[in-house]
Amino acid sequence: xxxxxxxxxxxxxxxxxxxxxxxxxxxxxxxxxxxxxxxxxxxxxxxxxxxxxxxxxxxxxxxxxxxxxxxxxxxxxxxxxxxxxxxxxxxxxxxxxxxxxxxxxxxxxxxxxxxxxxxxxxxxxxxxxxx
Amino acid sequence: xxxxxxxxxxxxxxxxxxxxxxxxxxxxxxxxxxxxxxxxxxxxxxxxxxxxxxxxxxxxxxxxxxxxxxxxxxxxxxxxxxxxxxxxxxxxxxxxxxxxxxxxxxxxxxxxxxxxxxxxxxxxxxx
Lengths: 131, 127
Hints:
The structure holds 2 protein chains of 2 kinds. In chain A, strands 1, 2, 3, 4, 5, 6, 7, 8 and 9 form a 9-stranded mixed beta sheet that branches. In chain A, 20% of the residues lie in helices and 40% in strands. Chain A is α+β, with helices and mostly antiparallel strands. Chain A starts with a strand and ends in a 7-residue tail after the last strand. The longest helix of chain A is centred in the N-terminal third of the chain and has 13 residues, at 14-26. Chain B is an alpha+beta fold. The longest helix of chain B is centred in the middle third of the chain and has 13 residues, at 75-87. Chain B starts with a strand and ends with a strand. The model of chain B has no long low-confidence stretch (mean pLDDT 88). At the A-B interface, β1, α1, β5 and α2 of A face β1, α1, β5 and α2 of B.
């Protein structure tokens, strides 16, 4: 089981970096699968069958230069992650809850790590966890 | 198939950050599997069954603030990645070849992206 749901990098020149990654990752069979603009910020998502690696301009990254989202097995695990991360010195960057703008059952929490990286635990699925 | 082989993050304070990640990720079933601590720097590998996320200090081991390694299906794909990345404006950070200090059949190439992130393509399978 993979532990990481997706990773995001902040880039300074969106078009330059998008074209760079499209070329470099194309050689590995990793494709540009999603590209959109929201609130004036641009995102590009790469992957094999779904986007797992994202490029974004500043605001997309929600406060960190680097974004790493970990896979949680249930909503309770997302909540436990958030509680423990704050107790361990992380800073709140978005409490546990649904983020329906990602997908209807996208449940996540966000914390800034000691260096200010934006880390997330995400569970996508029905309440109660996967069987 | 996952696009990513592994991810590494440089930290300002290795021990503080490692303690943070070990605590924060424990509810997700993620723990530290191995550590390399020595003259070249310190790095710890966390994962569920094997290391996937590496937390390190600013030493040579990570080679940038963030390091991403993408999975390559074979060695020819690593070579093609390197050629395409250089042609697309990336800067060389280690040409395609075996890196036997990782393991005997670790074949990889390293390039800096336009923002200076250290990116890699790696194939673990024997030729």
